[in-house]
Design brief:
Radius of gyration: 19 Å
Helix content: 40-55%
Order of helices and strands: HHEHEEHEEHEE
Largest sheet: 5 strands, mixed
Length: about 230
């Protein structure tokens, strides 16, 4: 009598579904992103001298965000194809985190949320891929908030030839029975107020960090909150 698919087979099937999803989504986004960037460039060329400083800053931001998204979707397509393309360059972690946090607070309406960190290092990494990982982890801290105003703290430490980036929150925490599953593709924490989305954020983040030579771990979680740790080569 058959006992059903093995855990390895289930995991392999889920990973293949995830790769197909990322490939399809990234491919479909390429054309609109290319057009957004193109039109932003045209407007900057034709209207640049007529715009005030605030308008110029906003239009430049649109172009930069579209170009960053283009680089990310290309990287995700290469990752889905099994040939991840990484473009390492110096990345100042502090300004990157602050910028992502400002975006997330606005996007998610979390104006009561706060973040804290000391001096964070400059890493030799792929800015687009690292931004995606950080945005997923920081975004989860806001999605799965507790009763108190959301608070996230970051700290960095050297461990041999690596950097360890610890990201701690004061959210709901993750029950021990679920902690082994949070990195599974398409799996989401069972919550009474279910969070929308495909359930790929942490899965994709772990895979992207693997392409960068690092890893993502849940290093602590209880009713007081969770701490994720990112390891990256120094």
């Amino acid at each position: 009598m058959s006992s059903g698919p093995t855990p390895t087979a289930v995991s392999s099937t889920s990973e293949e579904r995830m790769r197909r999803f990322l490939a399809t989504a990234s491919h479909d986004l390429q054309s609109p992103l290319r057009h957004i960037a193109m039109y932003a460039e045209i407007l900057l060329d034709e209207l640049g001298e007529k715009l005030d400083s605030e308008q110029l800053e906003s239009l430049t931001a649109i172009l930069q965000k579209a170009q960053t998204a283009q680089r990310l979707t290309k990287a995700l397509m290469s990752f889905a194809a099994g040939t991840p393309q990484v473009s390492p360059a110096p990345v100042e972690l502090g300004p990157l985190v602050d910028g992502l946090w400002t975006e997330l607070k606005t996007e998610m309406g979390a104006h009561d949320a706060s973040i804290g960190h000391g001096t964070l290092p400059t890493l030799n990494s792929d800015a687009a891929l690292l931004s995606t990982v950080l945005k997923n982890v920081l975004g989860n801290a806001l999605l799965y908030r507790g009763a108190a105003d959301p608070r996230v703290d970051l700290a960095a430490e050297r461990s041999g030839s690596d950097w360890l980036i610890h990201i701690s929150d004061n959210g709901r925490g993750i029950e021990p029975v679920h902690q082994e599953r949070i990195f599974e593709p398409f799996w989401k924490l069972p919550q009474p107020d279910a969070v929308t989305g495909p359930g790929l954020g942490l899965t994709a983040s772990r895979e992207l960090l693997s392409a960068l030579g690092g890893e993502l771990m849940l290093s602590h979680s209880d009713h007081t909150g969770s701490r994720f740790t990112i390891r990256l080569p120094a």
